[in-house]
Amino acid sequence: MNIDLSVVKQPFFIGVAGAGMSAIAQYLQGTGMQVSGSDRFFAAGAANDVQQKLEQEGIQCFVQDGSGITHATDLVVVSTAVEDTVAEVQKAKALNISIIKRSELLALIATTKKTIAVGGTSGKSTTSAMLFDILEAAGLGPGIISGAGLVSLIKQGKIGNAKVGKGDWLVIEADESDGSIVQYKPAIGLLLNVDKDHKEIDVLMDVFNTFKQNSAVFIVNQGNAYAKTLSVNGDHDFVSADTANAQTVGYTAANYTQQGFVSRFTINNHPFVLQIAGKHNMENALAAVAVAGHLGVSLDVAAAALSQYEGIYRRNQVLGKKGGVWVVDDFAHNPVKCAAAIASCQPVAAKVIAWFQPHGYGPTRFLRNDFVEEISKTLRPQDEIWMSEIFYAGGTATKDISAADLINDIKAKGKHAYFVEHRNDLLQQLRSHFTDDCVLLLMGARDPSLEAFAKEVWQQL
């Protein structure tokens, strides 16, 4: 589709409240367009936090009834979740308005800047945010289009997942789950890792290989077995120190320690401090530093920026501590992410109680054995894993698997595993399992009510 963004004045987003859609909508509004949009979560007379924040940015919001699309609308943007039968899509077609998918639009935006595309099955949002902070501290005035809000921007009353920079560089997340990553042709492609998630490894490798071919510079985590095979640029690749070939790459992290939720480590013998927990976040920071280093940013500047890094929405987000129990909210939703989130909490307390709500019957079925293996090998003898029933977003899914199946598999491995069908019953059943030195880790994604659930658990603890 040949669309010239320079002549677009009034784009309309169907499903504008979604994380990916709201980010692009805000970005285009920031470039001077008059953006509007609708969402099925908007209702006349009802308060909606995302809607209010979009409207604060000057984006006009409508209920999803077609009223927002007019003859002045010159582009309609849809996500993969929006079907052709939706009334607004039909109205756009009737008015002969060009329709473009979110991923296609992001690819077009990426051509207007020097783009850094962050890819991989885990850590994209965190690494993008860290890199944005480093480049900002270096005076490069970067822009960002992210899948999660940066706490530093959220504190300004924004959704926090987008900012138009004054400089030449734009940081974006390159999503492999829908295959859209192959559409980008970035100045720098960054590959964090390749682990089984939405697709089998061989399919993912094909996708990431195309990403590699489309990137002018490709920077790779050689500490990940699959990602390493795509390495082409050793000078700027990165790796954690427990890998045998650490000395052959440009950026190496080592000496990781964690005290509470604070992480300390070195990159090329330079000390770094993060105010967030987990060795996986050291690896995310290492990736961001490697890219920044390629752009000439010093380790001193990078370390100073990351020492002030405030994190992103629902990634190791510490809600607080009551009666010896820390409560942590996390977006972890695939096997590797869940294991990493659990491991990040283990240095904090003598016992970790992790709760997970899987999303989607198909993904849970596809990853069942991986969830069981990754979680089981991470749990210490005193730790526990709890699950509630799989989140169902609608559609025609075959409900032939339950979270109870995963719990039974983990229990068979000798671990403390419990199923509580309805999450509203969780806290009551947990109370006798708490100690005066433990972490309650709440994990899950895709369900928009998870943030409110975590806050409710914290308030009622």
Weakly predicted, low-confidence segments: none
CATH structural fold name of the largest domain: UDP-N-acetylmuramoyl-L-alanine:D-glutamate ligase
Helix content: 25-40%
Q: From the helix content, strand content and strand pairing, which structural class follows?
A: alpha/beta
Average pLDDT, rounded to a whole number, is: 91
| Terminal-residue CA separation | 53 Å
Name of the CATH class of the largest domain: Alpha Beta
Mind summarizing the main beta sheet?
Answer: 6 strands, mixed
Largest sheet, spatial ordering of strands: 8-7-9-6-10-11
CATH architecture call of the largest domain:
3-Layer(aba) Sandwich
Q: What is the number of helical segments per DSSP (H or I, 4+ residues)?
A: 16
Radius of gyration (CA) equals 22 Å
The H-level CATH homologous superfamily of the largest domain, spelled out, is Mur-like, catalytic domain
- Tell me the overall shape: globular
Tell me the fraction of residues in β-strands, as a range: 15-25%
Number of strands: 21
Indicate how many domains the architecture comprises.
3
GO molecular function, one term: UDP-N-acetylmuramate-L-alanine ligase activity
Domain Mur ligase central: 118-292
EC number: 6.3.2.8
InterPro entries: Mur-like_cat_sf, Mur_ligase_C, Mur_ligase_C_dom_sf, Mur_ligase_cen, Mur_ligase_N, MurCDEF_pg_biosynth
Annotate the secondary structure layout.
Layout: E1 11-14, H1 19-30, E2 36-39, H2 49-56, E3 60-63, E4 75-78, H3 87-94, E5 99-101, H4 102-110, E6 114-119, H5 124-137, E7 143-145, H6 151-154, E8 162-163, E9 169-173, E10 188-191, H7 201-214, E11 217-220, H8 225-228, E12 238-240, E13 251-259, E14 262-267, E15 270-274, H9 279-294, H10 299-307, E16 317-322, E17 325-330, H11 335-345, E18 351-357, H12 361-366, H13 368-378, E19 384-387, H14 403-412, E20 416-419, H15 426-430, E21 438-444, H16 450-460
Helix pairs in contact: 5-9, 5-10, 11-13, 13-14
